[in-house]
Every structure is written in C-alpha cells, then in structure tokens.
Amino acid sequence: MISLHAPASNHIRNLYSYRLSAYLCAMETFFSHYLLFLADTVTIVVALLIVAGGITAIAMSRRKNPTSGQVQVSDLRKQLEQSSENVQQYRLDKKALKVHQKALKKDRKDKAKDPVTESCTYLLDFKGDIRASAVSALREEISAIIQASKPGDTVLLRLESGGGMVNTYGLAAAQILRLRAAKIHVTALVDAVAASGGYMMAVTADRIVASPFALIGSIGVVAQIPNFHRWLQDRNIDWEQFTAGKFKRTVTLFGENTDSGRAKLREELEETHALFREFVQQYRPHLELEQVATGEAWLGSKALQLGLVDQLATSDEIILEAAQKGKVLTLHYQRQKTFPQRLGLAAQQSWDKLWQTPH
C-alpha cells in the first residue's frame, strides 16, 4: 500500500511546490514592476514640483523687486595707489621707505589744506554677448553718471564685443549717445575686439583707443540658418506653418524655402547694411566707407591706418594716465539674481560662447 501510493504523494508535493514557486515569482515580478512604476511617478512629480517652484520663485522675485539692484562704485585711483605702496614696501630699504612714506604723508596734508575740485573719470565695462544683454546694466550706470557728473568729467568705456543682434546693439549705441548729449566726453577702449555691433557702439564715442592686436571693424551684416526640410521629407514628416502677410516669414528652419523668400531676406540685409554704413559715417565722417564697410575686420595697427581708431594703446595705459590727473571711479550695476535666474544666465552664456564670432 505504501509503496503504491508514495509516488502519487511525491507528485502532489512537487506540483504544489512548483505552483508555490510560480506564485512567488509572479508576486516578485509584480512588486518589482510596481516599485519601478512608483519610482518613475515620484521622479516625475518631484521634477514637476521643482519646475513649478522655480517658476513661482522667479515670478515672486520679479513681483517683489522688479527693479532691485544698485550701482556699485569703487575708487580705482585709491586701489592703484595702494597697490603701488604694497610694491614699494618690498622694493625700498627701510630708510628709503621711511623717506617715501614721509613725503607721501606731506603731499596728502598739502592737498587737504588747499582742496581743489578735481575732474572725475568714470570707468565702465561692457562685455557683449550676441543679445547685448549687458545693455540693461549699462543704461543704469549711464543714468547715474549723467545725474552725478560735473563739467570736465569724462567716461572711459572698456568695450569687448564681436557683435550680435542689430536691434539690441543699436540700443547699446544709443545709451552711449546719451553721454554725448549730456556733453560728457567718451573714450572707447578696445583691448580684444570691437566688431560689427561692437564697432557700432565704439563709433559713438568721441575717441576710440585700441590695442595693437585688437580686432576692429566688420561693418557688415550676416544671417545664417540651417534648413531641415529635406530631412523631414525623407522621414515623411510634414511641417505646417501659417502666416498672414506675404513676407511674414522669408526663410524657415523646417519649411521649404523659396527663391522669393531668399531674395527678400537679401534685400533686408542690404537695407540693414546701408543703415549701418550711414550710422558709422555720421560719427566718423572721415572714413572711406567703400574701403572699410566690406564686412572685414582688421587688427588694431591696420585699423589705425584706415581711420577706424584714433590711437593705439591698452586700456591699462589710458586708465593710469587718467588716475594721475584726477579721480577714477569704477561703476558696476549689480542686480540681485535668484538661483533659477543664475542657472538660466549660465546656460545662456554657455550657448553664446558656442556661437560668439565676429559678425
């Protein structure tokens, strides 16, 4: 009896064990999939909360302080004098240093007894990206100077830009013209590059000083755009674009560009170039535009020969000369930025660096 039923009993036990293993395996699979789904859901929710929080923070910061910021001022002449004194302490022996410090103290006392109203030089910096986004700070700095300046005060503008969007660089140039309208002499200092929109800004100054190897000029206009129409066609993807007005769009990224659209864009470029030429001629009437308004850029020494600049020197030389004659104040408008704004600015600057070339 036992021998006859033992195989059946073992078979039942094996079958039960197999079903139990299958059940446990199925439950394990279910829970693993559920946990993955839960993790994905949590990730998406957290990401949405972060985005929503960032947008809310930006909106609140703008609502709270829509124009929060201030012009920070530092006395550059004092900084230069302090740097010189630090060097003298190591350069001179003790006896000579004592004599030097005594003479310096006497000079300061004499100036205090007979105070003379010195002229002031204001130093501004403009480092331009494609969108000329630094114009938002420049306009605040210039407004402060116009309100505080006295007759005889001057402005030094350290300018570095390879150009970019016509409208924003036109606005930046107009800011410099505000100084000229207020009868404040402006000198543009170019150490590295003032091309295209950067040169548009430079010509509005009373004087342009460039270093010998600075890149100057590029009085021209360029537009370039890739077109993915054939790539989309190969993948049977249609691109629909709806406009009102014959030339609302001339050329597009994804649509099929037409000869008439291309011709219209070239016409617009020629019109913009003509305006650029007229603007340059207005403020530097001695230039031979047929020779220099070709879109080319030249190094500083050649630019001097062509009349694009007035003097070859570095900004450091000009600033030191100004500090020997009077007070030099550095102005910098600083706006408090939230973390999302700083993150967005860093991303924009990285993108601009990829595309920043003289136009």
UniProtKB/TrEMBL annotation:
Pfam families on file:
Peptidase_S49, Peptidase_S49_N
**Domain of life, source organism:** Bacteria
Give the UniProt keywords, A-Z. Cell membrane, Hydrolase, Membrane, Protease, Serine protease, Transmembrane, Transmembrane helix
Query: What family is reported?
Result: Belongs to the peptidase S49 family.
What protein name does the entry list? Protease SohB
Biological process annotations from GO: proteolysis
Q: What is its EC number?
A: 3.4.21.-
Annotated Peptidase S49 domain residues: 179-328
Query: InterPro entries, per this entry?
Result: ClpP/crotonase-like_dom_sf, Peptidase_S49, Peptidase_S49_N_proteobac, S49_SppA_C
- Domain Peptidase S49 N-terminal proteobacteria residue range list: 30-176
**What molecular functions are annotated in GO for this chain?**
peptidase activity
Per the UniProt record, the source organism is: Acidithiobacillus ferriphilus
Gene field:
sohB
Q: Where are the transmembrane segments?
A: 42-60, 208-225
The subcellular localization recorded is: Cell membrane
